[in-house]
């Protein structure tokens, strides 16, 4: 029997391609791979009888308890964080399992040495292996996965990062639930309503920069890319107010992956500290950081010393012109290399392959037991299989009445549903990855 692994995918707009790439490498090693939405974590046991489950975090007490059950059955537990560049010491320690170190983890895969050190300093023995693999999703900035630029016009990519802002407009219970694990354990999150309102004000100021973009030279092309975790409606409303002429050179893109867009641009603009800035460095793109409220949670001054910055909307056009001048990046090159080496393990396009090799070796001597799976697990496993056959997300509920009686609650449920993968999404990306990798193999053979 082939070894089997379940990879839990948190957000299809961010994580699915990377998970599909990992699946490709694992399948090359003869491993059977199942990509499932994070919400289906409990259903996977009965549905797939895996030898390993790969989580993106274990911060909830329900997940901690579940890892103990998996360990008792001999099923390996792996953790691969979605975000591993954690500059804040308290946030780093929290994500390093400081408050959940009784979870059983066989393999904790981290992006950098700082994260590994934080885990090992507080490890009570429940985390068996900590492996530095770099940033697997950054592999998409290297051949054969990186797309080539297709437009000859100067293209400016504008990335937003106002995930907290949306909670100012939601039912307070949504934010209270979201921050519950953090507020008593990380001091910077203690007054989370302050953070929410700060982010909300920053987003409002950002629209002043957007208005500056509307008045930019006609030969420039702009792509507005909201963060996948944001509510995109506010950007759609702004975009609909543009004239047809403005829409010819300004595009709102809520569907493409960031790694598809960065190679297409000539300059990337980020809102204070954002991972997209580092990704643009990897892709060799000039960057601009918009300075807003400079709250320590959203802004890190040392990063602003490695890129052009802009604090006044009326000056943005001149800053873009400066970035398009090929000489603007040279003073930052050395500091950027050091930063990418420290926090991203010097991206080279091979992180996912390295990760797959470690998992392959780990599964060689794994013999889990699936006897005595109770009815609750079996019921959830049956539900997962049934909804998969219908190409529906695991949290699909045709009988939900919240759409009519509680529109705000329904909208939040819809947001969660939209980020969940479906079997058709998985099939699409597996086929796409397979096509790209097969082409690489054919090109290599023809060259040799």
Give the number of helices. Answer: 19
User: Which value, in Å, is the CA radius of gyration?
Assistant: 22 Å
CATH architecture term of the largest domain: 3-Layer(aba) Sandwich
Structural class: alpha/beta
Number of strands: 12
Estimate the mean pLDDT confidence: 90
**What would CATH call the class of the largest domain?**
Alpha Beta
Main β-sheet, in a few words?
6 strands, parallel
Number of domains: 2
Determine the fraction of residues in helical runs and give it as a percent range.
40-55%
Distance between the termini: 36 Å
Strands ordered across the widest β-sheet: 2-1-3-4-5-6
CATH superfamily of the largest domain: Response regulator
Predict the CATH topology of the largest domain.
Rossmann fold
Proportion in β-strands: 5-15%
